[in-house]
Design a protein that fits this description.
This protein is α/β, with parallel strands linked by helices. It is built from 22 helices and 14 strands. The protein has a five-stranded parallel sheet with strand order 7-4-3-8-9, with helices on both faces. Strands 2-6-5-12 form a four-stranded mixed sheet, with helices on both faces. Strands 10-13-14 form a three-stranded mixed sheet, covered by helices on one side. Helix 17 crosses helix 18 (about 430-440). The N and C termini lie far apart (about 55 Å).
Length: about 500
């Protein structure tokens, strides 16, 4: 029979489940983490768990936190387990499970309780995983969205905030008044320059109610940039059953993830930090080159395989990566046109990273889907593909493959795969994209004229001509033949 996960069960875990390699009673909290979802517990919490097992950094344990009513469900689940989480690594060579104990507490879902905890001088880092959309970034300008209703509330009610950022400011103000040093604010979300985004949001909110305090925050609070990476699917009854039936543990909130993790951090922690470099994290002066590598090789790679895979009838990513046509296309595009746009990073082998990304895509245990990769192309293409095209054009480089990637997206937006099967709408702008894609069959410029997506890129002849040529080839010769021709 499966055992219920809690502190009392740690001494009798099944042989197949590894427990924390340290005394949790010796831990003390140095970090408040807001947003205790799957990714945080598969990533940051695992790094800390491994550090504590070395006997170091045990004053850097995590106090979890949430600010939304829905966060109470996670708090309740973890409280019954004494804040323990089982992490299952989806390694094709064999699944493994371990119980992590880096979290030792979780504040009440209450703004006053969270402000109180962050005001404690023992807390030296406040970290956040609030999703890419949780930072109040204006979609048009990329700046701070000061007109969001929650932001307006916190600006006029700074002593009773609704948002995590209002609570952070309230705690910082209390620490300043008490003569205590400010904590470091660290974003763990997957967005470029996340530290700069965090500073923009926190300082932007402060400016709306207290300009002098905003200046103090801007000058005294550190917001390090970080790059995070670990594929972490959502938890469902399937994962809970896996823990119970295969590993003999009943966990209300287990986490499954790939065995790969990467964490690159700007070394900017004035009040100290855990020595995470001893368990695989990297501390650098500038995270931006690592972010660009990930955005272009991993995220750009996802975009590259998404549309031809859908057009050829693949549903799962690992099935697409078993198709030699997709594998050859991805390798050729990244080697010839994407990697050459990256500036060298000392100690980093881009080709080795590319191979590792392809290996991760091929992992059948993850169960990632092609429809997920195809989703929201009108937002993803401008982030992951079009900047590469601009850089390549500016360098005078060939863009035939990058133009083919965009042509494949256009062909996908036309709404049918190679067998004539309908493709379900997968973009908020699907209707407009389909109209343009069908018109582009006769006039390729009809697709590139979408300035919301392409800006002035369609006016650059080297790209526009290559796109037109590749799109015509897709319609006349088919996806497989066009991919093969490029990959030769």
């Amino acid at each position: 029979m499966a055992i219920d996960l809690n502190a009392a069960a740690l001494g009798r875990l099944p042989d197949a489940v590894k427990g924390p390699g340290y005394d949790r009673n010796a831990l003390s909290a140095g970090i408040v983490h807001i947003g205790v979802g799957n990714f945080h517990r598969a990533h940051m919490a695992v790094y800390l768990d491994r550090l504590f097992a070395t006997g170091e950094g045990q004053d850097w344990a995590i106090c979890g936190a949430g600010v939304r009513p829905g966060d109470a469900k996670m708090r309740d689940a973890l409280q019954k387990q004494d804040w323990l989480t089982t992490v299952v690594e989806l390694d094709p060579a064999g699944l493994s499970a371990s119980v992590t104990g880096a979290m030792i507490d979780f504040t009440e879902i209450d703004s006053a309780a969270l402000v109180e905890r962050m005001s404690d001088p023992a807390i030296r880092i406040v970290s956040l995983t609030v999703t890419e959309g949780g930072w109040f970034v204006d979609a048009r300008s990329g700046g701070f969205d000061e007109n969001h209703p929650d932001i307006r509330h916190d600006a006029t009610n700074p002593d009773s905030p609704k948002t995590a950022f209002g609570m952070i400011l309230a705690a910082l103000k209390r620490r300043r008044a008490a003569g205590n040093a400010p904590f470091t604010v660290m974003s763990c979300d997957n967005l470029p320059e996340n530290g700069h985004v965090a500073k923009q949001t926190v300082v932007g909110l402060a400016k709306l109610s207290d300009a002098d305090f905003a200046s103090w925050v801007a000058s005294n609070v550190a917001f390090p940039n970080t790059m995070v990476d670990c594929i972490t699917p959502a938890t469902s009854d399937r994962e809970r059953a896996l823990m119970r039936d295969r590993f003999g543990v009943t966990d209300a909130a287990p986490v499954v993830c790939e065995p790969f993790r990467q964490w690159v951090l700007e070394d900017n922690f004035p009040q100290g930090r855990p020595a995470l470099e001893k368990v695989g994290a990297e501390f650098v002066e500038d995270v931006a080159p690592y972010e660009l590598m990930k955005l272009r090789i991993l995220n750009g790679g996802h975009a590259a395989i998404a549309y031809p895979s859908a057009l050829l009838g693949h549903h799962f990513v690992h099935d697409a990566m078993a198709d030699p046509r997709i594998v050859a296309w991805l390798a050729a595009l990244e080697t010839r046109e994407i990697i050459p746009t990256l500036a060298p990073i000392e100690g980093v082998d881009f080709e080795a990273y590319r191979r590792k990304v392809a290996e991760r895509f091929a992992n059948p245990e993850i169960g990632d889907t092609i429809p997920r990769l195809c989703h929201d192309g009108s937002n993803r293409q401008p982030k992951f593909v079009l900047p590469v095209i601009r850089d390549a054009l500016d360098a005078g480089s060939n863009v035939d493959g990058l133009a083919l990637e965009v042509a494949l997206w256009c062909r996908y937006c036309a709404g049918t795969d190679e067998e004539g099967n309908a493709i379900a709408p997968n973009d908020d702008n699907a209707e407009d994209l389909k109209r343009r894609a069908l018109a582009a069959k006769d006039d390729p410029a009809a697709f590139l004229s979408n300035e919301t997506v392409f800006g002035d890129l369609g006016e650059r002849p080297a790209f526009a001509d290559a796109f037109a040529r590749q799109l015509r080839a897709l319609w006349s010769d088919g996806v497989a033949a066009t991919l093969d021709r490029y990959a030769k």
